[in-house]
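Lab notebook, page 48
Experiment: co-folding of the full assembly
Goal: obtain a model of how the components sit together before planning crosslinking
Operator: M.T.
Materials (sequences as entered):
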Amino acid sequence: MTLILSNDDVGKLLTMPEVIAVLEEAYVELAEGRGVNRTRSDSLSPTTWPEATYGLKSMDGIVPKLGVGAVRINSDIVTWPKRGNNVRREKVPAAPNDRWVGLVLLFSTHNGEPLAIFPDGVMQRTRVGATNGLGAKYLSRPDSETVGILGSGWQAGTQLRAVCAVRDIKTIRCFSPNKENREKFAAVMSEDLGITVEPVSQPEDAVKGADIAMCASNSIDNIFFAQWVEPGMHISEIKRPEIEFAALAKADRIAIHTKDPHPLHFTTKDLPMPEKIKGKGWAEAKATLDIEKLPTLPELIVGRAKGRDNPEQVTAFLNNMGMGYQFAAAGSLLVRKAKEAGVGHELPTDWFTEDVHP
Amino acid sequence: MTLILSNDDVERLLTIDDCIAALDEGYREIGEGRAANRTRSDIVTPTVHEGGLYALKSMDGVIPKRKVAAIRINSDILTWEMKAGNRVRVKKPAAPGERYVGLVLLFSTDTGEPLAIFPDGVMQRLRVAATSGLGAKLLARKNAKTVALLGAGWQAGSQAMAICAVRDIQEIRVYSPTPATREAFCREMANQVPARLTPMTSPEAAVKGADIVLCATNSLGNVFKASWVEPGMHLGSIKPAELEPAAVAKAAVAVTHFHDNEPTIIRTHVDPAKEDKHGVRHEPTGLDESALPTLPDLVLGRCRARQSDAEVTAFLNHAGLGYQFAVCGAALLDKARAAKAGNELPTEWFTEDVHP
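Observation: model returned without errors.
Model output:
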């Protein structure tokens, strides 16, 4: 049977420490050449939605050791509204009942069969969090206790869960531009983590004195600046270019998630691309930062790259781009736990297989 | 609701004529830069099957005019076998019930929602054949009556249907190495095409005097020789090695399906000593298609077509496009909705209220 799971199922079944553990195992496989990942591709076109672009995005990966291949697909209506001083990239929930469209399909490497289909949202933020958690595990000071987080959205919660899974965190301060959002987030996460999350009105107040500063916004502009860097700090981001280049220049050790520089774009002719027009992202990063020379998280995990040498060093982890591979790793865990718990709708596998040669 | 369709539904609903018409429009759109296509990618690893490989393949495309995007996914167990002296790649039906795994997912470019999910097999062969048919429609002699079909497999049947949809074909002469296979093919196709089907004992006998030669094999070696080319012939192939390069060189007009459509292949680390045995790429064929005009060029009149009945023409249909699934998928959706076909699943199963 092919399992259809919901975001609720994924949220109930996957715990952060387990996802961190399975990703760590999968990154070892990848570093040793025993796993494969395909860089995200975006097929982009006009849509009837005003001032928006349609994007069919996909990424995939296989962890042979875990017997699972995954394809993650997003079918997005994307807009670029200006919020405050920053341009955001926002996905419009344009599907019926104001919903987004992201799917993960898992396949068996043993017999090819589709194992499960589920929406990507909860796993998406869990794997981003777990990845930055691994960055912190391998780069931050082992005695780190204080976290400053910039952002109070969808990604910020899993960033905090992940850092709390790898370090004994005692104090968390949160800034986001909207007062109501950060206060609500602080209340929810204090409950979730059992650690008081203090909302603060300035980004400086969140990161000042923090052992670990985490950026978790959807900004396509800088939000963390060089003057905020303190000795011994570990800084992380979930997308380029949250951390200003001058701040990165102060880091003694920088690791990135993947050397893939950017998604591959396949577009209709003359399609407007606000990120490119504004010169954002890696195109700009290249001038200041040679990503080819930076070690990756898998290299750090297998000890091929050096972590921190002493408590004074500044470290940074750039979760520059996601990998389809992460969905294969976390997906293998999800399928195992879903079967154990008897969770999800079972559909006949025959609906998704065929007796004619493709 | 999200439609779940079966191969039977696709076969019943979508005709070769539908696909040829849809692709004609689709190639105009992409030729004018109003559509997007992503070249196939294969990621390849070991599997538990001895001597085999696991491959997860995907390709996609968007046709904004029809408001449809498609991704096609294959999850294959690949093995290699020797057949009639040629090394051929064989997909093993390893899924429960000895089945293959190929899926197409269609999405709306208006709302992003998933519109349909269905196995790829029937559409796969329809779009390959419809593309070859469109090539023949624009290149073969108008009075072509006789077809030589080299191959009697899964793709050959739809090639026969497609060529009969674009020309008034009287006879199709079928050759494949195994007598029982070609004879069975002729029997099974008899009520699906208006032309007479004749099994032939050699490829030379099949192609001699034919107006159109269609190769429809999974061979990694040549199946049609340059010395067999006759004036006025139209040649079609679906695999790079099928036509001897010197045969294509004899064509006054040779058109390739599309440029820059070489799949991207990413693999786990492989022992170089085993590379050859387990290779997933075709050997180089010596056929250079990079300078040839494409089917969108041909459809839009940007390259010349046949100028006389004596000219030889060729259409090389060697790599598919994810875009074809968007184009044919849009045609399928129209027909499925009109016929109220398929199983409907709640769209909520495939959408979400949390930001991805």
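Interpretation: The radius of gyration of chain B is 20 Å.
Next step: discuss with group before ordering constructs.
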